[in-house]
Here is the input.
Amino acid sequence: MKNRSAFIRTVPMSTPIPSVIALAKVKGMKVSPSLVHKVRSDMRDKMRKTAKPASVPAVMPSTPRAHSAKHVLVVIASEIGMSKAIDILMRLRAAALLIIKA
Here is the structure.
């Protein structure tokens, strides 16, 4: 890769600047800290411009789904799979019953 800015954009933003410089050196490129800072700053500006503001409904529903425990449970179950979610719930129920009986 001959373009230094393109290389910097491929490195995760969480990578410290000295590490980016070392990685570039391994690739045979000479990169300055100011160039890394400038490219990352431009990337952040571009991300801010393309990010869309969250839309707020004009009227809030009487029972917001985002705060519903049932909704959270459904979302988690859809992420990890229903059978795994049921297994976890059954283990938690058994542990709660042991605590209650004690």
User: Anything to note?
Assistant: DSSP finds five helices and no strands in the chain. The CA atoms of residues 66 and 72 lie 7 Å apart. The chain has a mean pLDDT of 81. The helical segments are 4-10, 17-26, 33-50, 69-80, 82-101.
